[in-house]
Amino acid sequence: MESTVMFTAVADHGGKYGPFPSDTTLVFNTTITDIGGGYDKTSGEFTAPSAGYFYFTFFYHAGKEQMSGLTLMKNERIVVKTYDENKPGPNTCDNAGNAAFLQLNAGDRVYVRLPANCRIYASDRTTSFSGFMVAPM
pLDDT tens per residue, the chain (137 residues)? Predict the structure, then answer.
């Protein structure tokens, strides 16, 4: 089994993405790097190929006309979030991100959700999801 596991993918959906009436898994459909084969660009999910300690990051860009945010999920549980209500003000856009170390077992799934009624910008490589194994268990 491959011992190096790392990926970076970006969401490229042609511009503004969302809002949707319910939470939606964000598919980062353009893979930049996927060593170890854990990331699936059709589902947007990373599946741990083996047990270990992993580090994940996600970043987004959004306009100010709509609430924005993303949520990092592990097996249907919230890990960390970003969120902005986008109240009126001098700024015309938002950039946000978050990160977490996670202990994963083989087969655990990690993915990013767009919360209901939120919008992000999914083009020009501005919204990304990355992860890598720090150490095996």
Answer: 458 999 999 999 989 999 999 999 999 999 999 999 899 999 999 999 999 999 999 999 987 778 899 999 999 999 999 988 766 666 667 889 999 999 999 999 999 999 999 999 998 999 999 999 999 98
Q: Is the pTM of this model over 0.85?
A: yes
Determine contact, residues 7/46, Cβ cutoff 8 Å: yes
Query: Can the peptide bond before residue 19 be classed as cis, meaning omega within 30 degrees of 0?
Result: yes
- Cα(50)–Cα(25) distance, integer angstroms: 23
Q: Where are the beta strands (DSSP E) in 67-123?
A: 68-74, 77-84, 93-104, 109-114, 120-122
